[in-house]
Specification:
Number of helices: 3
Strand content: 5-15%
Structural class: mainly alpha
Distance between the termini: 43 Å
Shape: globular
Mean pLDDT: 92
Strand order of the largest sheet: 1-2-3
Radius of gyration: 14 Å
Number of domains: 1
Largest sheet: 3 strands, antiparallel
C-alpha cells in the first residue's frame, strides 16, 4: 500500500494546526486517530486516496469542535467569529480552506498562516 497520501495528509493538517496555535497534545492525538481511521478507509477504496487529506482535516475539525470549539477560525474577514471549512466536501483532490461567511478560498490545506484580523 502507498502510504504517501496519509503522510502528506498528516503533515498538511499538522502545519495548519501549528499555524493556528492549536497543535496541542489533544489535537495531535485527534490527528493520529484520523490518519489511522482513514488508512483503513483508503485500503478499502484505493481510488479514494486523493480524498484522504481533506477528509483527515474534516475529521480533526469535527473532533476539535466537540471538545474545544471551532477550528480553524477565519482571520481574514471582519465581523463575528466564524470558521473555515474544507472544499470540496469530499475533501479532494485539491482541498482548500474556504470562509464560511464569504465563500472565498483562504488557503490550500497545509497553507494556513497565522493572520490576525
Amino acid at each position: 500500500m502507498d502510504n504517501q497520501p496519509l503522510f502528506s495528509a498528516r503533515a498538511r493538517v499538522l502545519a495548519d494546526l501549528e499555524a493556528c496555535g492549536q497543535a496541542t497534545p489533544e489535537a495531535v492525538s485527534l490527528l493520529e486517530d484520523a490518519v489511522s481511521d482513514r488508512e483503513w478507509w483508503a485500503d478499502q477504496w484505493p481510488e479514494g486516496r486523493v480524498y484522504v487529506a481533506g477528509l483527515v482535516a474534516q475529521d480533526v475539525q469535527d473532533g476539535l469542535f466537540e471538545s474545544r470549539g471551532r477550528w480553524p477560525l477565519c482571520r481574514v474577514c471582519e465581523g463575528p467569529e466564524h470558521s473555515l471549512y474544507i472544499q470540496p466536501d469530499l475533501g479532494g483532490p485539491d482541498p482548500v480552506w474556504v470562509c464560511e461567511e464569504s465563500g472565498d478560498v483562504v488557503a490550500p490545506l497545509g497553507g494556513l498562516r497565522l493572520t490576525r484580523r
